[in-house]
Amino acid sequence: xxxxxxxxVAVSADGYIATADGRIDWLTPFETAGExxxxxxxxxSVDAILLGRRTYEQCLGFGTWPYADKPCWVxxxxxxxSSQMGVTVTSHxxxxxxxxxxxxxxxxxWLVGGGAxxxxxxxxxxxxxYILSCxxxxxxxxxxxxxxxGGQQALTLLDSRIYSxxxxxxxxxxxxxxxxxxxxxx
Length: 186
Description:
Elements: E1 4-12, E2 16-18, H1 39-45, E3 48-52, H2 53-60, E4 72-75, E5 87-90, H3 94-103, E6 108-113, H4 115-123, E7 129-135, E8 143-144, E9 155-162, E10 168-174
Parallel strand pairs: 1-6, 1-7, 3-4, 3-6, 4-5
Antiparallel strand pairs: 2-8, 7-10, 9-10
């Protein structure tokens, strides 16, 4: 069975995960002491990290590499080098990378972002769960939650939580993608 892919992300009320120049400092007012929005438990539950190149480069700017204890795959069409231990830069398609994770016995992967990579995974029906922390801010533009593409997808709400600072976290399970390659029923 291929690994579960969970898109766990903060999103503005108007559907953006970063400003047009890739900044996420608009999240700073919502980083409160003692509240991690379930992050620690979620992070402990995943075996692998999936990032797009721009998200990877942004994470490098944090100083300390935040995923040092997990194997990471960075999707990039550009030939980039990584100096981080446990980071694999790949130009392979998402489905191929998931086959590699499965071969390694990895069962749950966090799709960190960005929107283009999430759009590619969604278009291929590879995201099994969505954990969206909706932040009460309108950015007016920026990096969308997903790039356009892919068809309509049904979701089942598993849980929701409203935090004291008006952040709303929604947990969805994706309906299984149709198997377009199976033989017709007789």
